[in-house]
TrEMBL record:
One Pfam family per UniProt: 2Fe-2S_thioredx
Listed InterPro entries: NADP_DH_HndA-like, NuoE-like, NuoE_dom, NuoE_N, Thioredoxin-like_sf
UniProt key word Metal-binding: yes
Family under the similarity heading: Belongs to the complex I 24 kDa subunit family.
Database matches in CDD domains: TRX_Fd_NuoE
Cofactor: [2Fe-2S] cluster
Residues binding [2Fe-2S] cluster, per UniProt: C89, C94, C130, C134
Gene3D superfamilies: Glutaredoxin (3.40.30.10), NADH-quinone oxidoreductase subunit E (1.10.10.1590)
GO molecular function: 2 iron, 2 sulfur cluster binding; metal ion binding; oxidoreductase activity
Cofactor-binding details, from the entry: Binds 1 [2Fe-2S] cluster.
Keywords, comma-separated and alphabetical: 2Fe-2S, Iron, Iron-sulfur, Metal-binding
Descriptive protein name: Formate dehydrogenase
Species assigned in the record: Vagococcus acidifermentans
């Protein structure tokens, strides 16, 4: 593990997904918040069929309705996204360390906006709520790793290293 990296938990299990549903009151009215929370907490970065079925079941609604909501909101995905999805924390402690500058840099460097994959399918980025590494802000999380104390130079180096396959995730 390199300095500045922190290993976070891997993809969500059923109990963790259920905990998110309960956190939002397990009510249909919170479906969008639940789906966003699960998607952005997940290593996969999308809502798979199994998860949609679980959410539908827990909220007492049909899977079809859950997928209607997923397809209505561009932020929600029902398919695997880019190979590397860079998740930038935009909660207050990271925001004050200028995480917005990292977002602007990624837009410029990758020629995409949030939640869009690059033409080569290698990168996408989006903003996430605090994953609990505030002491390292601003941070970028990719799969189960957190890269902390990021600045523009480090982001460029990170993109370069990922392209070259120098970072194992
Ligand atoms: S506020 Fe960004 S990791 Fe906690």
């Amino acid at each position: 593990m390199q300095k500045g990296e922190l290993v976070m938990s891997s993809d969500l299990n059923i109990q963790e997904k259920k905990a998110i549903i309960v956190k939002h009151g397990a009510v249909k009215e919170k479906l969008l918040n639940i789906l966003l929370d699960i998607q952005f907490s997940s290593e996969k970065g999308y809502i798979d069929k199994e998860t949609a079925a679980l959410v539908a079941d827990e909220l007492g609604m049909t899977e079809t309705r859950v997928f209607e909501v997923i397809s209505y909101y561009a932020m929600l995905k029902d398919k695997p996204q880019a190979k590397y999805v860079l998740k930038i924390c935009n909660s207050s402690p990271c925001y004050v360390t200028e995480s917005d500058k990292l977002v602007a840099l990624l837009e410029k460097e990758l020629h995409v906006t949030a939640n869009q994959a690059t033409a080569d399918g290698l990168f996408a980025f989006n903003c996430i709520p605090c994953p609990g590494a505030c002491h390292m802000g601003p941070i970028i999380k990719i799969k189960d790793k957190v890269f902390g104390n990021m600045d523009e130079q480090k982001v460029l180096q990170l993109l370069h290293d990922l392209r070259e396959g120098r970072i194992s995730l």
